[in-house]
Amino acid sequence: MIHHRIGWNFTSNKRMNSPQLASTQRYTVDDYIAWNDGQRYELLHGGVHAMSPAPSWQHQLISSNLEFEIKFHLRPRKTCQIVYAPIDVYLSQDTVVQPDIIVVCDSKKIEKKGYVGAPDLVVEILSPSTAKADWKDKYFLYEKSGVREYWIVNPDDALVHVFLLTDGKFCLSGTYSAEDAVKISIFEDIIIDLKNVFEKDSLSTQESKL
Known about the structure:
Blueprint: H1 2-6, H2 29-34, E1 41-44, E2 47-50, H3 57-74, E3 81-84, E4 89-92, E5 95-97, E6 101-104, E7 110-111, E8 114-116, E9 121-125, H4 131-145, E10 149-154, E11 159-166, E12 169-177, E13 181-183, E14 191-193, H5 194-197, H6 202-209
Parallel strand pairs: 4-8, 9-10
Antiparallel strand pairs: 1-2, 3-6, 4-5, 6-9, 7-8, 10-11, 11-12, 13-14
């Protein structure tokens, strides 16, 4: 069980149906697990954040394209896995996040309720409601937690910003456009062609002409 390994107690006696979003109350993993109102939340340093409505079509298209491209390279290796949202990532006793995409290579951190610890790669795809958190709050959170590589994907500008963890700090490795190919630095030989990620949505284009 997860709490045997890292010392967290997942057997809370609290019976909280949902958090109080307007309050300044601080919450823990125990509280998070007890919420059963069917809504999605993230817990950042004890503060609760309600997840925004379903992402846009463009957001989900980019997410599925990128997930497909990465999985294509990972499948023959069978040493790492890629998972996409919603998936709970437990980073501390008071922090649970749901990144858009994670790549994990430590099977010992996989639990029934999610992933416990820092993923090897985290991808966040910007949307108007999440951009500030992805660039600031989650940036420093992933940095402190030890995420080895962090991608911030900007759908509007078709850009990918790649940050690598160096001596405990994120450093910008590069910013890539749809015309570029970008290497996943935690692997020796995985290169993603971004034109396949930012491909033109022919279905939406056809519908817009109707």
